[in-house]
Amino acid sequence: xxxxxxxxxxxxxxxxxxxxxxxxxxxxxxxxxxxxxxxxxxxxxxxxxxxxxxxxxxxxxxxxxxxxxxxxxxxxxxxxxxxxxxxxxxxxxxxxxxxxxxxxxxxxxxxxxxxxxxxxxxxxxxxxxxxxxxxxxxxxxxxxxxxxxxxxxxxxxxxxxxxxxxxxxxxxxxxxxxxxxxxxxxxxxxxxxxxxxxxxxxxxxxxxxxxxxxxxxxxxxxxxxxxxxxxxxxxxxxxxxxxxxxxxxxxxxxxxxxxxxxxxxxxxxxxxxxxxxxxxxxxxxxxxxxxxxxxxxxxxxxxxxxxxxxxxxxxxxxxxxxxxxxxxxxxxxxxxxxxxxxxxxxxxxxxxxxxxxxxxxxxxxxxxxxxxxxxxxxxxxxxxxxxxxxxxxxxxxxxxxxxxxxxxxxxxxxxxxxxxxxxxxxxxxxxxxxxxxxxxxxxxxxxxxxxxxxxxxxxxxxxxxxxxxxxxxxxxxxxxxxxxxxxxxxxxxxxxxxxxxxxxxxxxxxxxxxxxxxxxxxxxxxxxxxxxxxxxxxxxxxxxxxxxxxxxxxxxxxxxxxxxxxxxxxxxxxxxxxxxxxxxxxxxxxxxxxxxxxxxxxxx
Amino acid sequence: xxxxxxxxxxxxxxxxxxxxxxxxxxxxxxxxxxxxxxxxxxxxxxxxxxxxxxxxxxxxxxxxxxxxxxxxxxxxxxxxxxxxxxxxxxxxxxxxxxxxxxxxxxxxxxxxxxxxxxxxxxxxxxxxxxxxxxxxxxxxxxxxxxxxxxxxxxxxxxxxxxxxxxxxxxxxxxxxxxxxxxxxxxxxxxxxxxxxxxxxxxxxxxxxxxxxxxxxxxxxxxxxxxxxxxxxxxxxxxxxxxxxxx
Lengths: 604, 246
Ligand SMILES: Cc1cc2nc3c(=O)[nH]c(=O)nc-3n(C[C@H](O)[C@H](O)[C@H](O)COP(=O)(O)O)c2cc1C
Ligand code: SF4
Ligand code: SF4
What we know:
The complex is a heterodimer. By secondary structure, chain A is an alpha/beta fold. In chain A, the strands form three sheets. A six-stranded mixed beta sheet of chain A has the order 6-12-11-15-13-14. Chain A contains 26 helices and 15 strands. In chain A, helix 1 (2-17) packs antiparallel against helix 2 (25-36). Chain A has five domains: 2-64, Arc Repressor Mutant, subunit A (Orthogonal Bundle); 76-171, 3-Layer(aba) Sandwich (Glutaredoxin); 176-389, Rossmann fold; 399-474, Ubiquitin-like (UB roll), CATH 3.10.20.600; 477-560, NADH-ubiquinone oxidoreductase 51kDa subunit, iron-sulphur binding domain (de novo design (two linked rop proteins)). Chain A is 44% helix and 13% strand. Chain B is 18% helix and 15% strand. Chain B has helices at 22-28, 78-94, 109-116, 152-160, 227-230, and strands at 6-9, 12-15, 52-55, 58-61, 72-74, 133-134, 140-143, 166-169, 176-179, 206-208. The longest helix of chain B is centred in the middle third of the chain and has 17 residues, at 78-94. Chain B has five helices and ten strands, in the order E-E-H-E-E-E-H-H-E-E-H-E-E-E-H. Chain B is an alpha+beta fold. In chain B, a hairpin with a 6-residue loop joins strand 8 and strand 9 (176-179). Chain B has two domains: 7-82 and 227-241, Ubiquitin-like (UB roll), CATH 3.10.20; 99-223, Alpha-Beta Plaits. Chain A binds chain B through residues 41, 45, 54-57, 59-60, 63-65, 329, 346, 351, 353, 488-497, 499-504, 507, 527-528, 530-531, 534-537, 571-572, and chain B through 44, 46-50, 52, 59, 61, 64, 66, 83, 86-87, 90-91, 93-94, 124-125, 127, 148-149, 164, 167-175, 178, 180, 182. The complex binds flavin mononucleotide and iron/sulfur cluster (2 copies). The site of one iron/sulfur cluster has 14 residues of chain A, from helix 19 and helix 21. Chain A: One of its GO terms (molecular function) is 4 iron, 4 sulfur cluster binding. Chain A: Keywords: 4Fe-4S, Iron, Iron-sulfur, Metal-binding, Oxidoreductase. Chain A: Belongs to the complex I 51 kDa subunit family. Chain A: This is NADH-quinone oxidoreductase subunit F. Chain B: InterPro entries: 2Fe-2S_ferredoxin-like_sf, 2Fe-2S_ferredoxin-type, NAD-red_Hydgase_HoxS_gsu, NADH_UbQ_OxRdtase_75kDa_su_CS, NADH_UbQ_OxRdtase_ferredoxin, NADH_UbQ_OxRdtase_Gsu_4Fe4S-bd.
């Protein structure tokens, strides 16, 4: 009784702090879970009651996001980043090591409720892995000695604040800087420019700059801003997409950590241009470690007259920024799913058209841009469009931040003018022995050595920034399998081809990977991939088959050396099915196993 | 009199009004495009993807794509049919569809569309999910095994009945239909067979309890004529084997 009334009071306080706004549901659930370690039915019911919405709606949000739990979870929740780059750095061994030492099953919670250990999609620390999260806070450069120390800290119930700071250290590893990262930027310079020259002139500079969306799709940013500016309505919004969920990319992390002023300034310029007074940063949950610092930066900007009411003393220039934290859902990087999530809902992509520029956040005109796009826009406002357009190629102006990871000597952030060749990048990062690159992440393309002279730009190889190197020692199929599992985990489940197709594809890849695949399975993968590509509702499902389809063309040998000679292999493995019977009867003699020969002849 | 805008669908000219989708315009012109989550009485959803057509060379869901003058739309071509067949196969292996034993068999939209697109076998490996049946309601039965997540019942209950009885929860392949009560049981809701939500399911998920297998094989809704001729089960009267409430 006493316990449940304190639970209700805890939740009431949290909901109150969020002004009982249903748009804050995701933030509320995050905070409730921080206090209670998981979201019980009771907790969900109280949240629903306080917000005046149905418990089913609250639960649909709670069940959608990976970092929200509707079953008990340990007070210390440790999730290993499970991107292929973490695997290259040996994360699986560390995962088992830690689970053993803590006496907890993987994906389980210890009986005393103290600790849970599991895995999660790429946490964006590929240049300093193996990485993990503890209660959402990033752990980097894990080693066995570090894990030994963590075991002690957990067993001693040491609060996270008292863990060694260096466990949480996130370095930026900027290896090559060009116009975006290299040149000094004076806070407020872009705001002064937009005040002095007016929104039209800044838009004109944006047009001249040729800047294209740096999130990967490459839509002309000036056109997006213009369309939102023209859209009818008094209330408009600016949204910065800092979801950065594409495995292998971490450039937005570095921008938010080291260049937050530049990003906020770009958002504020955008606000002035389109006529918005409110902006949001949608920050992926994996980056919660930087929330306090970002809030402090926002506060500093307010105090310096660079944010809030009467910016630079001009009463007509009002703009503020709020930070929304995601909770583990790659699909929420898709702009319309992101908006749904910002509204406090589960992140299912909307039907487009209408597009966010006319019907975005709360159905108001909204610009959604990537972090790097806003940073570039701030520079363009100061230095001019021609300055920006002097770098890059005909169709891809300016520079691109690449996140380099995998098999190279110097992983980190590399800023290049668009048009740089893959080969050049490999040389610069010290990747001597590359057999292939996963370009633009699992949703992008796999490039074999034959294609290393291709150029990184929208005319040739478009990318949001992920660049994962596989050297000759690697089995490409390990990567493909990792990506296939990633998409199963991240599909939102709304549409048939992605919801079901990602699972079917994973099963086929697993089948080949474990040596049970045949040529017919490869053909099946192509057909299935084609359905997913053309029939899916959003970019997630449309690109999910890319790794398989690309590697079938570029690395056929990785598949072929694993194939069975038979033309057909049933998905149902009769011998494996008999395993339980053998175990129960304690039989290990040869007669207890089916003859593979006979079996394969019996099959059609 | 101003000229109505038009597009072509498999070579036929289809007039449309501003704001109409390709599906709505085709329907008005009496042309069938197979579909499951679409029902003209509700806001389009675009999740089943079965109504996919090729619009100026690009595959798009006809239920959510606005019609535009001069569009060249292709529907009954092999390339599209093959994809639709794949989608139907996915839906069949995702759930547990034991057609010969199902009360809805013969009057099931899922089954009829599967026949229409030429699906002969499920082809993919079955998932065999475990989904318990809910028989807690005095008049209705929910067999979740047959649910294809079209959310028509969700929309009907929310938009028409004003009851909000159903919801979808979970992400990805774990997405599933739930009943919106603490116990998750239909019996604890004010759901009734006369609700709109009881009449829109394109599969045999939501069924009436007190009657069953009344129409002999051979005379069921889709036994003699295909769905493009007969129409959707949800749009038909009781006597034709459609709604079986009241
Ligand atoms: C599944 C999926 C995930 C995405 N994730 C991101 C992301 O993490 N960050 C991002 O900026 N854009 C992401 N996008 C692209 C956005 O939808 C959108 O195009 C972008 O934010 C627009 O900003 P830009 O024009 O500045 O690139 C994603 C798209 C899809 C389909
Ligand atoms: S393709 Fe479909 S199921 Fe996949 S994430 Fe997009 S909307 Fe969801
Ligand atoms: S129960 Fe029927 S109407 Fe409801 S979502 Fe499932 S298939 Fe659609």
